User: Fold this.
Amino acid sequence: MKKGIGFSLIGIILFLLLFAGTKPELFKEARFYEVLLNNYVKCNLCPNYCVLKENQLGICRSRQNIKGKLYSLVYGKPVAIHIDPIEKKPLNHFLPGARVFSLATAGCNLRCNFCQNWTISQTDPQDAQAYDLSPQEIISMAKGYGCKVIAFTYTEPTIFYEYMLDIAKLAKDNGMYTVWVTCGYINQEPLQELIPYLDAANIDLKGFSEDFYTQYTTGTLQPVLNTIKTCHELDLYFEITNLIIPQANDSEKIINEMCNWIKDNIGVDYPLHFSRFYPHYKLDNRPPTPLGILESAKKIAERTGIHYVYIGNVPGLGDDTFCPSCGRKIIERDGLQLINNFIEDEKCKFCGYKIPGIFE
Amino acid sequence: MKNASSAVIKYPVFLNKLTGVSNKKTRLKFFVLGYISITSQTLLLRELLIQFNGNEIVYMICLSLWLFLIASGSIMAKIILRSIITASSVKLLLILLPFLQLACMAAIPLLVGKLNPMTGIMVDIPLVFIISLIVLMPGCIILGMLFPLICHEQDKVRFTVIRGYIGECLGMVSGGLALLLILVIDKNFLLLALVQFLSMMLTVVLFGIRKNSLLLLLYLLFVPIIHGIYLRWYHENFKPQQLIYSQDSRYGRLDVTSYGEQKNYYWDGHYLADTYSRLAAEQFIGFIMLQHPAPRDILVAGGLLSGYIEEIKSYPDIGTLAYTELDNNIISQYQAPSNIGFIRKELQSYLRSSTGKYDLIIIDYPDPASIFLNRYYTREFFRLISLRLKDKNSLLAITLSSGGNYITEEYAGLYQSVYQALHYIFPATVIIPAQKNILLGSNGDYLTQAVEVLTKRMQDRHIRKDNFNAAVIFSTCNELRIDQIKKALHSEQQAILNTVKSPRAYQYSLLLWIQKLGYRISNVYVFVKKYRCLYLASILLLTFIITGLIKTFTGSPNYLAQYQIFSISYINFVMQLLLIYIFQTRYGSVYFIIFIFTMTFMLGATLGFHYGMKINLPMNFLFIINIMMILFLFLAHQRIDFFLIIFIFNFLIAALEGVLLTQLLHRSTYNSASKQAVSFYSLDSMGAMFGGLCFSVLLFPLFDLNLILIFLIGLLLINMILSSVDRKYKSW
Assistant:
């Protein structure tokens, strides 16, 4: 009888240990949150400002309120690790031809119905098979693969902010570069703390209307514009990508407004990529963007005065870099491949015009 | 046999003595009812499927709704019978039906356009359900009501329902023939208008030509108006793209739109290709061409409008270039000048009949998200392919959609099941994780994923493409990308290889589709597979519960007979779906000769009903025959190589079902024909609905054929036990 009770107690304890909720000690406490009444917390990392009751996940699915504290569920748990050409990010004025160690964790703070990486961005971290890699291990791995650039990419890196920040700090210490490929949906305080540890960013300006953001991404436009302005003010080198989706954000009027905003707020020297949409995720019966629309967008941007305008996702079309001063081709690309680079000391080899970006 | 509905299979002709209904007009009414049912069901469901960009689950949701609404209609007839004069209501409803079905078809694009949040986005399951319900409800409720209402006109209780059924079956056979004969019309809407016009003519004949001929005129005026509305909304749903071409064929619908200078191609509502797909073709074809030392004779299936042919032709020393395509509409859109040989045959039947040998066989079909497509990813198919390869370095290339930067469990299951089937036949098997995963199988040792080797081959052959160069090869095949694929192929779940009998790739494709819609059920899937007995028992329990519910609504007197009618409909409908599946895996698209399939079924059912009225056999004897038929299928389904056997078997299943249902009805005690009709019709419909749903949603996506057949045998054994208990105690 006593034996039976003893076994039962052991069983109950084991059960509690195994299944009694999430174990906070396994996770990293998140930053940028405030505790509210009744163990509620409010996450201030991104403009979603999730207010979470106990055990609730944020919209990003990667931050959870555990017993009145906010934890990051994805610290040290990347689900995707790859090596890509830097041109794939896309970054055309940042170490052309470099190979980039790219990583992402599960989750995202937006819900874009055209997401190319929906298998990770729209999944819960506990449903995805993750690696277990500390920031130090990431640095060692990147070095092992001969990569001097680490990119936080695929999903929105803001959701693994703490992990990203620690990796970025270590990368700086190890003389490596870090690249932030982002939708720009982040609040000002975390952004300003992050920027000093980054070397470059690609900011995805997905559209230029609140309607588009609401309908296609469930986010809002203004915070993204604020991010772009802050990156400019804090001197972070970045390029902007605008994915043109047919029937969604492809009107000349909208593209014109966007180009004017760029010119008026951050100037004409930041490269702008117009990317071709391909059917993905839920938007899989929308046709790809006609090349004519991409070329028109490029012309509009050039007419506005933006110096470096590229067409993305269309190999062989609009991927070379031209000097705004002498008009000569200074970087020749063939698809993702670097063919020729005529930039020396960050200047055009032919006329000496300074080209923005980071070139070795 | 499932009234007007179990329909994938029902069709039509010859009336009279067979029906045994005394009144000529009543006989004709049953006939018209069957005719309208089958024609409108075939065409409305097809339209729904296209506009939802649907798969087989979507089709079964719509079909199940159809059956459910028919059952509901017949139950509602019970209420109407108390208050409305039957003769006039039957006339009114029969006249109303053709108008209504056309209006419902016109409403489909309107509802999809208004309720779906944006063009080109996946239609979510709740929306599929809501739109189908709105579209199908008016017609189905009326169809369901009509059968008991017509039965009500007969004073005799005995066999009236069965005779009505025979009339309806013959109507369906004729409806199928009508569809077959006028299938040359390449517009679904106009086809519906025409077949419904024939039913209007029959109705006018039925109720008096003089008094009702004006109705025909009214119908003829109605068609262009409602067609205009349909077209307006159909075009509207593509805007701002301009719909410049839309044609139906036996194989599906091809829509072509223009947007700017770009043409976009849609197949059954799915985006297929566009003017610039050639850019992606460079990469796809490039990776394949590098896997053979000197590709010369090439067979291609799929990708005609994606520019594969032009891309292959850009390589030197191409000898024979053959392309298999059944649909003339697709070939008509292929405008590039070419000297390729079009083989107008379905790929598998071509491979069986041909003696040609190839260096490369390239197949780019959509993922195996349907039973029909799954056949191109099975071990059996790969074996067939291996016979058509020229030498040890010859290879097969197939595609599966890419999981991108992360491979989910569902994608991993899909890749594993197909990879293992491929590897079973070809000792050398490789996956290139490109924009679309390219799976390669060969008997030689020339296949490679190695970046250096591929780059060297490309340089040696002087291949220079915008979208296929050293950087693309590195980006695609670098160590981490290859590791990701290897990890997926060897992950814990270890999916069983994809075969005709165990269509695992189809199952994982369905899970992926569901995951894309935002529902993650892979854990449920694992649970169900683990506790399959519990799962099957709960399905069984559901059959009892549903029968109980129907009994409550219809007020039927005998629960056991009710249950047996329900379960016989259930079992035989699943059997029919299995036969269709077996047929598709052997001979390709079932639409090609569905009319033979459905007509043999309806003729079998007619015969079964007819002789069921004349003979009196012990129920358990009939159940044993049914079990033996299932056992035959269990043992022989892999060896059925002659399609006539499938049709004979189909005929026999229907005949047996006809006899069984007649016997069961004979044992039920009713005091009026209409009550009997309400009960029988609703049980038959619900049994088929439940069978269809179980097969396509609950059983087939999870288990293999043999287990499903064993489950059906189990159901029949329960029926036998219940019959024995009934004989002893007579207490049901």
The radius of gyration of chain A is 22 Å.
